[in-house]
Structures are given as C-alpha cells and as structure tokens.
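Task: complex structure prediction.
Instruction: return structure tokens for all chains below.
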Amino acid sequence: VAGGRGYIGGFEQIVLLAVARLGQQAYGMRVRQEIEKTTDRRVAIGAVYATLDRMEQKGLVKSRDVAGGPERGGRARRYFTVTALGADALNESRTTLARLWSGLPAGVVA
Amino acid sequence: MTKTIRDMVRSHSLDAMVSDTVLGIRSPSFIAESLLGLSPERCTPGLYEASLAERAACLSGVNSLKAIAGRDSLFDSMSLPLCMAGMAPSAAALALRDLPEAMRLPPGAASAVRDYTRELRFHDEATRFGGLASTVLGDRFGGAYAAGSCITRQDRELELLMRAEMSRDREFERLRAELGASSYAYAIDDPMTRARQQLAAAGYVWGEAVEEPSIRRQAASAAPPAQAAGAVEGAETSQPPEEVEAPIVEKAPSVAEGAHVSRRTELALRLLLGRRDYEVILGDLTEHWASDNAEFGHRSANLIYWREAIASAWPILGRRLVRIATAAYRILRALM
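Output:
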C-alpha cells in the first residue's frame, strides 16, 4: 500500500483492478479471464491465486468460499472483494502514477 | 533473416534448412520463430501467404524437417520438451531451445518417457494429431511433470497457433460425425490442405518422414471423391483430395469422463498445495476443462488442462513456501 506502508506491485495492481472490475463475480478463473482480456497477457491461474492470497494477507482483498456446481465437480468457488484498504491502495497508486506522468509528453518516453 | 528463410523456402531449398538445422547454424526453434515472424503484409501469395493456420502448417513443416534431419538425436531433444510442456508439436518447436536444460527429470523417468514416445510412434502420431501423444504422456507421467522444473513459453501467438490446430481437429470430427463414416478424406479446403498441395506441386511430399506409408493412400482408393468433396458445404471440388488419413477415433466425453484428468492432477497438486488451495484451484481447472471440452474437444481440453496445472503449481508452491518460511521466522523470533 502506498504512503509509507509499502507499494503494491505491478501484477498485484492488475489483479486488484480486475477484482474491482468484476465486483461480486470475482473468482479465480473469472479474474484470470478478465486480466487476459484487458491486458492481452497470458496468466496462469496459480499465479492469480498466489497474488490474491498475498493480498489477502495484506488486507487488500477478502475472500469467501461458496459451494460449486456440477461443472466444477462440486468444488468450491472462492470469491474475492476489494476491501477499503485495497481501494485506498488502488487510489493512491493511481495518484502516484498520475503525479509521475504529469509533465511528460503523451507519446513514447525516450 | 525472415527474408532469407522465405527465399530459401520459395526456391524449394528445404534441404538447406535441414542442413543448417543439423549443423546447428539455425536451431529449429529459431527457424520456427522466423516463420512465425512472417506477417501477412510482408508475404506475397505463396506457401507462406499468411493466414494463421498456414503459419501453423509451416511450423508443422519445421517439425517434419527436424524428423527428416535428426531421426534419433533431434527426436529425443524434441520429444522430452514436448511431453514435459504438454504442447502440440508446433508449439514445442518454440520451446526446444530452452526446455532441455530446464528439465530435471530423474534418469529413470527420462528414459521411460523416451521409450514411451517411441512406442507411440511419436513422429507420426504427435505431428499429425497435434498433441495427442503429449496428452497421453502427460497422463502417464504426471508425477514427472510435477517434479520437473518446466518453463514454458506462453506467447500469445503460440496460443493462437494451438487454437488453429484445435479448430482444424474439431472440423474433422464434425465431418466424420456428419458422414457417419469410419474414415474421411481431406476434402476440406482449409489452409493446411492448401499448404500441402502447394508443397506437393513443388515436388515435396509433406511430412514424408513422419507419416506411415500404410495409412497414407490415394483418395480414390479409399473414399469416393464425390462423397469426400461434397461433405463440407462450400468445399472446393476442382481439386481432388490429396490424401486420406486414418480417422481420429475418439468419442466426445462428458465432464464426468474427463474426471480422470482431474484425478491425476489432483494427486500431483495435492502434494504441492495446501488443502485450502487445491480444492478451489482444481474446481477452477475443472470448470475450465468443461468449457474447453465443449469448445475444442477432449484432447485439446486435456492439453490445456495439463498446461494450466503445471503453470499454476509453481507460483502457488512458491507462495506456500514463503508462508512457511514467514511462520518459521516468527516462531524463531518469538523463541529468541
């Protein structure tokens, strides 16, 4: 979390934004699809879970397990939501990046 | 560089590519990557004129070249990465350069994998059926999969190539079901067939070294051209099908039948992950498998499933180790 408490990493930020975009529908596979769709980047589901787990430890997201249907062999889905701390981290990260970008030309930075 | 390769291919000097590959001047993966780099805009009509599927066909051609050139040595170097990565042969070409050194299979498992690929007549099966062998190997050597340090390249383009192959397989399955036939001809005017025809016109037999003569025969002797050519709406009928291949006999499985993949993966992942994680991750993988199965078919779904399982195991294992280390550190600090 920015502001003297440490920064969220680049991938953490991407995952956190994907969770925020998905709202109540954010579970592992859906988060991964959202990331791939928006970033055109391949991501392993395990990497998503590892990141979400790390962020849960930091208090940036919280999770709840919900019983899964037959298409999942009855296995649970873990839904994630962004906490207030996570939202603060995203906002702060955005502000920091905006500050860093301000004054630079919009095109390619040499 | 791509220009040079293109020129070589245009002038039909495929043997020059083989020589370069054997001599190590050009690695197979380098050639494959160079072919991938040929964009539609830069290619005039010809063999590498450029739909995506045609480029996939080009990569299969590279695999054939390796089979022709290497037989044993290149065969070994290719089969291991292929089964470890769970990739289609065309995709494996790209992984060739990096994977052998990255793998740390126990000696026994490595030799068993080699033997098994030979049993499968790897050149033939894997090249033509696009990853079937690697899927089977993945099932059988799930433990070795998990134990190996497997780093795969997951380029977007590579994914698209795989999907092109899957799409082709799906079309053949559909056609076979529609005909109710035990065999069918390559009457579909797909880019792969066109590429083969162009090679044939150039006097080069596509996949000569990788196809069994016994299952390659003239269309006229195996299936009536009218039936074959008319099987697909809009199929090109002016040119007879070049060859007939043995059918891929495999019924479409249900989700429940695909559970065997899940069981093997479960065993591997259970060793690596905590209970809390593996239930959820396996659920996601199963869900993904079901949608891939419906969209791409059983073999391709299995392939994707294994690739996902392997790629997912390491980050989670790493995370788990970090947690254990953190807990151990806290305990030690409390004791001191």
